Amino acid sequence: MFDACHVGVVLRAVLFVEAVAGVVAMFGAGQVVDWLLRFSLLTGGVLPATLAWLIAACALKSRLSRLASALQWLVGIALGAAAGLYGCGLLVLMGLLQPAPWWASAAAGALVSAMLLTALFWRAKAQTPAATAARLAELQSRIRPHFLFNTLNSAIALVRAEPAKAEAVLEDLSELFRHALADPAESVTLGQEIALAQRYLEIEQIRFGDRLRVVWSLDSHADQAKLPPLLLQPLVENAVKHGVEPSATGAQLRISTLRRGSSVVIKVTNTTPAGAGERGNGLALANVRERLVLLHDVQASFRTAFKDGVFQVRMEIPA
């Protein structure tokens, strides 16, 4: 609940508290100038107090998360009251607030803190069902019959002629299901996701042969970036389904990663037959977008583009 270290959380918290301060400043302000003066005065105490609360919540989140739920709420509200007193003290020291409303400031800090905690609580609670639903969707896509049967048929066809290849296909298939059925984790590295996507494409290479042309452009400096588990593979699977399967001549897939300063750019691109492949319902893309936002919030971006017979998914995440 105290995961206040995300840029998006900090931004929303500051905007919310400033909005409250703006509304409070309206009371007793007859003109716009009066309101601006009151709002500026309140901001001088409210903004440092809010940032102090966010910094404390972020720094203590590991310790606070080990407390019982009731104690977490109590400590969070107590921090809010302390932050309110801190903001009031700053205004008093600057000679901007006389007499000092200590009790009112503490009560206001506790109230606003309780509202922020409620928002963080529901944010944390929303992640669990969304992650569970995403996990079930991924499991369903892994075990759909045509994928399993096609893969097994590829292995059977190779058993006598090329037993080593058949064994490799079954090993890759086993690895895919092992990842799909493993205990869900909050995040994995981009390097792990790349390795899993490579195994999947090795299976599909047996199935499609020369129709599947894969180009990798990987930046090793981007491998430690964090992603939700099983995020990249559905995008690759989507590219195969809508680019390679409908085309008699196949398609080219390009997967690239690039670190740019404090961010990592990931692109999955595929050509489509006659300018347009089989239209899907967009569930895979929506699923990926939702999980990416849940993990990285406003620090992540997800965009798709279709131009000149080429479909591209572009993601940007913190390094």
Structure report:
It is a single chain. This protein is an alpha+beta fold. It is built from ten helices and seven strands. The protein has helices at 7-26, 32-59, 61-64, 69-93, 102-142, 145-159, 163-181, 190-208, 232-244, 283-296; strands at 188-189, 212-217, 226-227, 251-260, 263-271, 301-307, 310-318. The strands form two sheets. Strands 2-4-5-7-6 form a five-stranded mixed beta sheet, covered by helices on one side. The protein has a two-stranded antiparallel ribbon with strand order 1-3. Strand 6 (301-307) and strand 7 form a beta hairpin. Helix 1 runs antiparallel to helix 2 (32-59), helix 4 packs across helix 5 (102-142) and helix 6 (145-159) crosses helix 8. The model has no long low-confidence stretch (mean pLDDT 83).
